[in-house]
Amino acid sequence: MSAVKNSLAGLGALILAGSALAQSGTSALKGHNSNAPVDVAADRIEVQDRADRAIFSGNVVAKQAGLTLNASRVTVAYSSGGGIEIDRLDASGGVTVTSPSETAKGNSAIYDLNRRLITMIGGVTLTQGRNVVRGGRLTIDLDSGRAVVDGGAPAGVNSGGGRVTGTFTVPQRAGANNPGT
């Protein structure tokens, strides 16, 4: 019984520490270069210069360094003082964010380049290898690499019952109650 308690306590510590998925306890996006150019491709673009935004729709793919964001629609907010500088990406419609070793999926996402935060909301799934965590909201701090999955989401967003769930791989140990050994 104490082995089960220790395992559960260890699992809880990993989740609280940030990304329970990464071996190091941090997201693969730690230190991501948010100053790198952002390349965006889509079926359609609507530029709203007076509002300092561009709306990309239809199979949107946005790439920056090792990060890729896919969605049905992405609104790019920018400042235009002496050149266009992207401040924020708001994505909706089956959003997927991938890094070299992780994939996050959700209903919508906000990538705040100035605050260096990625927030995904609604039916969030964070995957690394065979490890999976599900919840209502995921926040990734690109400075620290800390990834937090919450069960709840803002009112009106389907968050999956307000709980965080996870499935994690366990190293196979010789003779440790393994069937057939």
TrEMBL record:
Record's keyword terms, sorted: Signal
Superkingdom of this protein's organism: Bacteria
Cellular component annotations (GO), alphabetically ordered: cell outer membrane; outer membrane-bounded periplasmic space
Signal peptide: 1-22
Location of the Organic solvent tolerance-like N-terminal domain: 40-145
GO biological process, one term: lipopolysaccharide transport
GO molecular function: glycolipid transfer activity
Pfam families (UniProt xref): LptD_N
Ranges that cross the membrane: none
InterPro entries recorded: LPS_export_LptA, OstA-like_N
Matches recorded under PANTHER family: LIPOPOLYSACCHARIDE EXPORT SYSTEM PROTEIN LPTA
Protein name as catalogued: Lipopolysaccharide export system protein LptA
